[in-house]
Every structure is written in structure tokens, then in C-alpha cells.
Write a structure and sequence with these properties.
Radius of gyration: 22 Å
Helix content: 25-40%
Oligomer: single chain
Low-confidence stretches: 1-8
Structural class: alpha+beta
Largest sheet: 7 strands, antiparallel
Length: 474
Amino acid sequence: MASNRYEFSACTSVLVGKKATIDGSTLIARNEDFKSAWPKHLVIHPHEEFANEQKFVAQDNGFTTTLPKIKGKYTATPEWTAENGLIEEDGINEYGVAMSATESTYANDQVLAVDPLVETGINEGSVVTVVLPYAHSAREGVAILGKIVETNGAAETNGMLFSDQDEVWYMEIGSGHHWVAQRIPDDCYAVAANQMAIQEINFDDPDNFMFSPTIREFVAQNHLNTAREGFNFRKIFGTQTLSDEVYSTPRVWFAQQYLNADTPNTPMSEDLPFIRKADRLIQVADVEYILGSHFQRTPYDLLGKGPESGKFRPISLAKTQESHILQIRPDMPIEVGGLHWLSLGVTAQSVYVPLYAGATDVHPAYKVGTKDYSPDSAYWTYKLAGILVDPHYHEFGEDLQETQHKLRIKFGQMVREADQKALQMEPAERTKFLTDQSIKMQQTGLDAMNKLISVLVTKSTDLSPLNYNTDLNL
């Protein structure tokens, strides 16, 4: 099997169709989990045009492909080092397409025995870089990546999220050369957590399903489908193990029971549906709550003290590098309607800061930071606040929550005001304005976190184990 950067880590993904949200937005979102100290940066790649097609060679595994002459502008969150690949993870391009990749998944031994992974195939390190700048719709993004998998092979089995103003798609690579994708119905949502998620494939419904052209023949010829009828991708290509039931399905269960009151109390179930219709319309705040969750209000809360606390792997944990919500709002030009919400560090201890898709630059603090702490880095600023809270969660939790609460309100106000002004501007003036406003919001978040850090450091001085209370009778 090809080396997988995320082999022993994980992510959690949420996808929401436009009629399932409160304002008609499409939403795709994911926690990126790897190491507890591994900074992310935020970049905006400019539009570029070349005289000839460009050759791309991945630094980490030698994956090679040819890229089109026109490369669209897009946002991305690469790591501080390219030693494991570019790993750009998520972004919104100038054509109104959002992409998040990848959700690490696992194929079963029987599938990989007949279509093994390709060491020099496409992997997480390259996928956003070679797909997002060239996709003019969510559906086209799926098609571009599918063709690469069929031609070059895949080094990993992964899930990828795509959206535009109208459609939301979830794509899964199931083996070295085979894949499927399903459109999330407009009035529904879906959650994925490190196992194959897509279930029954309707091969006669091209509006809602895409797939590698020979996947049915591949499964039939190699006797991989144990069902008497139907084509359940999750069961044919995926795994169903005790590890899945402790590590993966409980996260899906938590999100579903939050959005659907009738969700059965079976967090270890292998039969949870991939797609559901929520009891209510979904807001960005709901997605934030899910991605920042640790089984709160259940017996499994990682911060709880009951006998089942810590039984399951939570959605938010210390190894989260960043979390993003890619929102494409209706009835607006993409430069205004596209919001790249980015939370650096541990989602439960951070806050989502909005970046307009039309911006052309980011705050300097988002461009720096290495594996060692530095106060000039946005990643490390948010991370430090969480580290100070960690040993005294019950003493400092309210301070953190108050800061998060105020920032959510502030960002909501700032976006609302910026929207109104930007929509009245000419394109050239609008670009500078959206850039300035995005940087202003990033500065607002940093100021609030630094203020919180100051409070926490001051309070921590009185929590030393070297404290000694003198007996007043002495």
C-alpha cells in the first residue's frame, strides 16, 4: 500500500445542500487532523495563463500529470512545509467552485488484492492543487479527478468534497483505479468520518451519480459483491470492523442525533445512513458546533467524568490542524458570495474567521509559522490559547467560550456590513475592499485571542503547585 500521511489520523466531513440551509447556501466542511503541532498557512493563488500546458510533479511520491494552460485563482491552506506534499486541503476558486480534500478512508483487503493502490498515483498532497484551479463546476471537479484516478491511479483511498452555487458532491476513491461520486440532494445533508460512506449506487441516474466507467464489470468479474441484489459501494469496497465502530461511526451518529431527533441511540451502528434530511434548516453555526464537538451532552463526552467518557473518538481533538467551512451563498457574485471560514488549531478551542473568495491577500500572520512555536503565527496564536485552557478546562472554559461568543457575533456583523458595501461597488474597487475587510477580520480574531491569552496567563500564575497557604495561627 502506498504511504498515507493520514494513515493513523483522521478527518470528519459535513456536506449540506442548498435547500437544506437557512439561506440557500451550499456548505462543505471538514476538520483536517494530523499532528497536535503542525502549522497551516492560508494562501490565495492568483489567476495565471501559460503559453503551454504545464507539467506537475509531486515532491512526495512522484505523481505526474499535465495541467491546462489557464489556472484559475483559488484559496488554499497548505502546510508550513512541503516535505509531505503541498497538501493544500481546501479552497474556493474564481469560478465559484469549492473543494475540500481529503477524508481518509480504507478499502478492504479483497478489493485491494485485485486493484492495489499505486505508489505514484494521486494522493492528498496533490489533489487540490491539480483539480481546484481548473474546475468550472462541482460536477466538473469530480470528472477531472475521476479521469486522473483512472489514468494515473490513486495512492490512497479517500473522500473528496465539491460544491458550487447549485450542487454538492461527495466522491470516494475505493481502490487503485475505481471511484464513485454522489450528489447530495438539495434538501439533505451528509456526514463522513474515515470510512467509505456512499451506499447504493444508481447507475441509471447520471444526474446524481458518477463513477469509473468499468466499476460494475470490475466488481462482477472479481466476485466482490456479497449482496444478492444492488450495489452498495460502502459494503463492497469499505471495511466494517470494530475499529470502524469505535473510531468512525460514533462521529457520524453524533452529528445525526444533533440534527435528527429520531436518530437511534446506536453510535456503533454500521448501518447509519449516509444521507439524511434534517429536522430543521441548517446554519453555519450548526456545522461549527458539529466540527467542534467532543460528544458533549452525551455519556461519551471526552471532557466528562462518567464511565463511558472517552469511549469513542470525538470529532474535535488535539490533532486538528485546521477546520474549514466553505460557504457559497446564492444570488451574489462569487467574490462576495464565497466565504472561506477558517478555524486554526483545535476546533473546539478556536473560532472560524471568514475570508472572502474575492480577496487577493491575507494577514501576514497567516503566512508564517513552523513546527516550533512563534508568536507571529496565526496558527500558533490560536493554538496557544487552547494549550493554556487545556490543563484548567473547568477554570478557563468560560473565558474561552466568552471570547468565541463575542467573535461569532462580531464576524457576523462585519460580514453583513461588508456584503452591503461590496455589492454596490465596481469590480476593481470591490477586490481591494474585500481584501481589506478579510484582513481586518483576521486581525480582529488575533486581537481577541491575544487578549484571551493575556487573561489566561495572568490567571495561571495563581494555579502553581508551589502555592502554599500559611496557617494564620502561626
